[in-house]
Amino acid sequence: MTEADSAALRIDMTRLGDKLAELASIGAIEGTEGCARLALTDEDRDGRNLVVTYMRDLGLDVSIDGIGNVIAVMAHDGPEAPVMTGSHIDTVRTGGRYDGNLGVLAGLEVIETVIGSGITLDRPLAVGFFTDEEGARFPPDMLGSLVYVGGMALEDALEIEGIDGAIVGDELTRIGYAGSAPLPGPVPHAFVELHIEQGPVLEVEDITIGAVTGVQGISWQQVTITGQSNHAGTTPMSLRRDPGFVAAACATFVRELALELGHPQVGTVGRVEFAPNLVNVVPASATFTVDLRNTDEAVLVEAEQRFAAFVAKAAEAEGCTVETETLARFEPVTFAPEVVDIVESAANDLGHSVMRLPSGAGHDAQMMARVCPTAMVFTQSRDGLSHNAAEYTSPADLEAGANVLLQTMIRLSQNPASV
Ligand code: GLV
Ligand code: MN
Ligand code: MN
C-alpha cells in the first residue's frame, strides 16, 4: 500500500457510532443520553469489560497495570515503540457519553480501520484507557495516567480514599482490574488524544477541528471550616460561630476573584457538605471544594494565595478554624509543537476548518506529555456543554475528529520519524 492509499483511509462512522451507543448503555442515566460510571464502580467495571472485549476481538495485545490502566497494542514485527492514543471511560456522576469514551472508541476504530486496510506501518498503533481520569470519586483527576508516567507511586495511589470512603486499591481488586503490567508504563513514540472540546469555542467560531496547544493549570483544594454547632432558634446571631456562613462567603469570593483576575481564570465551588446538615442546627462544620484553573501559572498561584488569605480572615472573623487539603495540583502543560502541526495539517488535508486552542479541561494527554511528544484533537461540543448528561457532538463532527486522529496517527507512525 502506498502513501496515497493510506492518505485515502477513512474510519467507519457506523461502527464507531454503534460502539459509542453500546458503551453509553452501561450506567445510562434514565431519560437522558448521559452516563454515570464513576471510577472503579460496578458500572465502570462493566464498561471496562466491554471495551476489553472489543480490544481482544481485534486481536490486540491487551495489558492491565497495577492502577488498572488498560493498553492494547497492534501486532508488529520489530522493536519500534507504538504511536499511542487513548483517553478514559470513567465519567462524572452526571456525565455525557462522549467525554473520554470518544477518545478510546475512536482509537479502536482507527486501529480496526488500519488492520482492515492491510496497510503496513513502520510503528504499531496502541490504544488505552486510563483509570479515574475524572477524579470525581478519587482525587486527583488523571490518576491513572499520572501513575503511568511515574508522577505518583503506585503504593500511594492505591491508598487514596474516595468521597464515599472507598479505597482505590480495594476497589481495583474488587472489580478485577488490579493488573500486573509494569509501572511506570512503556513510553510510546508519541501520544495523541481525541476528545470533545467540552467548551464553546469551536462552535462559536464555526470551526470543525481544534488542534490543542496545551492544557491549563489545575488547582483543587478541599476546605473544612469548623465552628460551634448550636440551636438555630435560640442562638443569637451575634454569638454564632457558623461554618456554613464562612463557606458561603468563600464561594462568593471564588466567583469575585475569578472575575477580577479576568479571563482565562476560572473558579468553582462544586461540592459542599454541612454537618450535621439539618434545618434547625447551626452546622458544626462545612466542607467544600475549590477548583481554580488558569493557563498562566503565576496568576494561578496568585489566585491560590488570595483565596487562602480570604478563607483565613473569614474564618477568624467568625471564630472558626480552617483545614485545607490539596486534592490536585498540576501546572499548565504545553504540547509538542511538531505534533500540533501534524494535527493541523491532517485536518487541513481532510478539508476541515481547524484552529489552535488550549484546553480548559484536564486530560490524560497532559500526563503523557511528560514522557513523549503529545497533542490532542478537539471536536465541537453543542452549546459548550459537558459534565452534563446533555453533552452532544454531531455524528459529522465525531467522524471528522476520528479521521483527523486516524491520519495523525498514520503520519506519526511513518519513518523517517516525524517527531
Ligand atoms: C476532568 O475532566 C477535569 O478537567 O475536571
Ligand atoms: Mn475527559
Ligand atoms: Mn470529564
Describe the structure in your own words.
By secondary structure, the chain is an alpha+beta fold. It has 2 domains: 3-215 and 333-418, Zn peptidases (Aminopeptidase, 3-Layer(aba) Sandwich); 217-330, 2-Layer Sandwich (Alpha-Beta Plaits). Helices cover 36% and strands 21% of the residues. It has 13 helices and 16 strands. The chain has helices at residues 3-7, 13-24, 42-57, 101-117, 143-148, 154-158, 168-175, 201-205, 243-261, 297-317, 337-349, 364-368, 395-412, and strands at 61-64, 70-73, 83-87, 125-129, 190-196, 209-215, 217-226, 230-231, 266-268, 272-275, 281-282, 285-294, 321-330, 333-334, 354-359, 374-379. It is elongated. It binds glyoxylic acid and manganese (II) ion (2 copies). Glyoxylic acid (GLV) is lined by residues 134, 141, 361-362.
Question: Features of this protein?
Answer:
Aminopeptidase; 13 helices; five-stranded antiparallel β-sheet; Alpha-Beta Plaits; alpha+beta; 2 domains; nine-stranded mixed β-sheet; 419 residues; 21% strand; binds glyoxylic acid; binds manganese (II) ion
Provide a concise account of the structure shown.
The chain has 419 residues and is α+β, with helices and mostly antiparallel strands. 36% of the residues lie in helices and 21% in strands.
Number of strands: 16
In terms of per-residue confidence, which ranges show pLDDT below 50 for 5 or more consecutive residues?
Answer: none
The CATH superfamily of the largest domain is identified as Zn peptidases
Q: What is the string of SSEs from the N terminus onward?
A: HHHEEEHEHHHEHEEEHEEEEHEEHEHEH
Beta-strand content:
15-25%
